[in-house]
Description:
The complex is a heterodimer of chains A (167) and B (268). Chain A is mostly helical and 167 residues long. Helix content of chain A is 68%, strand content 0%. Chain A contains 6 helices and no strands. Chain A has helices spanning 2-21, 39-42, 50-68, 73-93, 109-132, 138-162. In chain A, α4 (73-93) packs antiparallel against α5. Chain B has a 6-stranded antiparallel β-barrel with strand order 1-2-5-4-3-12. In chain B, a hairpin with a 4-residue loop joins β4 (140-148) and β5 (153-160). Chain B is globular, with a radius of gyration of 23 Å. The model of chain B has no long low-confidence stretch (mean pLDDT 83). Classes of the chains: A mainly alpha (167), B alpha+beta (268). At the A-B interface, α3 and α4 of A face α2 and α3 of B.
Amino acid sequence: MNSDNLVSVFQFILLLFLQAFLLSNMNFFGFINPNLYLLFIIVYRLDGNTTLLIILGFLLGLFLDLLTQGSGGHTIATLTIAYLRPYIAKFSFGVNNDIPMGMLKGSLLSQRLLYLSMLIFVHHLILFTVIYLSFDNIITIIKNTFFTSVFTFLMAYFSMELFKEKK
Amino acid sequence: MRQLFNALINYKNTLIFIGLLALSLVFLNSRSFYHQSIFSNATLSFSSQFNLITHNISSYINLAESNKKLHLENEKLKALELFKFAKPLHQNTLLDSFGFEVRSARIVKNSYRGARNYLIIDKGYKDSIEVEMGVITSDGVVGIVNQVTADFSSILSVLHRDLKINARFKKNGAYGSLSWQGNHPKRMKLLDVSTLNPIAIGDTIVTGGMSYYFPYGIPIGTVLDFKKPDFEGYYDIDVELFSNLTQKEFVYILRNNQLNQLKQLNNE
C-alpha cells in the first residue's frame, strides 16, 4: 500500500509537469492540446479512497491552471471528473467495478474502452464549456471537445498499453 | 445529532465536491475578466428583479412627493417649449445639430453610503441603453452607465472615488477634473484648474463637454471654498453640488449620436 502511495505521488508530479510544460503547448492543427494528465484519475485504484481522489483532482487542476496561466477551467473539470469517477466506473464495469486495477486488466476490453472514453469526453465537455461559457460559441465547444477527446483518448490508451505490467 | 453526523459522513464526498467547486468558481472569477463579467451580469439581473419589487413599494408611498417634483420640472420644460415655439424657423436645425438624445428611466436602487457607489435603473438594452452613456437628473450629473442587461442597467455614480468628470467654470471656461473624495454626498473636489484663472467663491461649475458622455453646460454646482497652494500651479477647489443624489427618483440617459466619430478620431 505504501509503495502504491509513492507511485501515486510520482505520477501526480510527473503528469502535472509533462502536461504544463510539454502537452499544453503542442497545438496540433492549431488548437488540439491532449490532456494526458487525466491518466492520474483514470489509473487511480478503483478501490482507493474516493474522498482523497476528489481533493487530489482539485489540486491537480489547480496547479495546472496556475502553471499554464489558465482561467480555472481545468480545476472545475478535473474536480468534477474526480467526483463522478465512481459512478462512471460503476456504469462501465458493472459488477466488476471493485477490481483494483480494472481499467488495465481483469475486465472486458469493451468495458475498459467505455470507461476511458466516458471519463475523457465528460472532462473535455466541462473543460471547454467553462472556458468559453457562452451559447454563441457552442460550435467551437463541440468541435474542441470532440477532436481533443479523440487525441487524448489515443494517447491515454497507448500510454496505458505501454506501461502495463507484462507477465 | 448522531444521525446528522452519520448523514454528513455518508455524503462527505458530495459535500467536499460542492465546497471545492465553490472554491474553484471563486478562483475562476478572480482570474478571468470574461468570466467575472458573466457572473456579475447574472447576479445583476437577479438582484435587480428583487430590488424592483422593494422599490415599487417604497415609491408608491412617496408618490405625492415625486409628483410635485415632476410638476416643477414640467413647468421648466413648458417654458422651454414656449420659447421654441417663438422661433419656429430654427427649431429643427437646433435639435438636429445637437448631438445628444435623451431617454428617461427610473432608479431602482441607489447607493450613496459606500466609497464606490452604484445606481441601478429600470431600462436595459431592450430600450437601447448602452454602456458608457452619460446619466443626468433634472439638476445635475448622476454618472455613467457601466453595465447593461435586458431590462436593467447599472450606473457608476459620480459619488464613486475612481470616477473623474471633466468640468469647467461657467464664467471663464477654466477647466479641471471633478472627483469625489468619499465623505459627503453633496461635496466634490475640482482639481487641475490652473492658478492663472481668477476664481471666486460662489462661481458656477458646469460640465466641460470634453468627454464622450456629457454635452457642454449642464450645471453641476458652485464653488464652496478654494485654496491656492504655494508651490503648485493648480487650485484645490471644494464644490457643492446642486443636486442631492440621495433623494432622486428619475434620471435621464444621454445618448451621444456622434460617439462613433469621436472615437474614430481618438483612435487615429
